[in-house]
Amino acid sequence: MVSATASERSRMLEPALDDAAWVDIELASAAEMAAMLQRLRERGIPWIASAHDFLKTPDREHLELSAERAKELGAAVFKIAAMIRCPADLVRLAEFQLLDQGIPKSTMGMGALAPVSRLLCAQCGSVLNYGFLSTSPTAPGQWSVGQLKAAIKSLPEFRPESGL
After folding, report:
1. Which of 6, 46, 65, 89 could form a disulfide with 76 if both were Cys (CB 3.0 to 4.6 A apart)?
2. Tens digits of per-residue pLDDT, 46-79?
3. Residues 144-163, buried b or exposed e (16+ Cβ, 10 A)?
């Protein structure tokens, strides 16, 4: 899949800004999207700094540095979607979600353990949870919106101070 350039993405976003409540921009392209980020600030539209790793779950240091960068750039939320290959990856995402870095976070896994990660991270305070609307997932292991909503609603209350 060929990705659009920053100017192409900005051109596509511009007509939607009058109706946008939030905009999601890949953290890796924040520098090249600086003009759009400025437009969002001028309009008072919060943005989500997202990061995706379709191969692995980044180590804790990388996760923390990415969240710090998102905060420094003025993002309202830092979102990470990462491939979960083993239970240790799942624990790493949940532990990262529990850290207070001064920016709301959205964490979720992809792959076979994605459904578990989306529930665990939601219980740990993930502020955004994504499910698909159509007939098939847009990321490996993603739940439908209906399934995700019902599953999250059924979760018991979790108090992070009690640990994982």
Report:
1. 46
2. 999 999 999 999 999 999 999 999 999 999 999 9
3. eeeebeebbeeeeeeeeeee
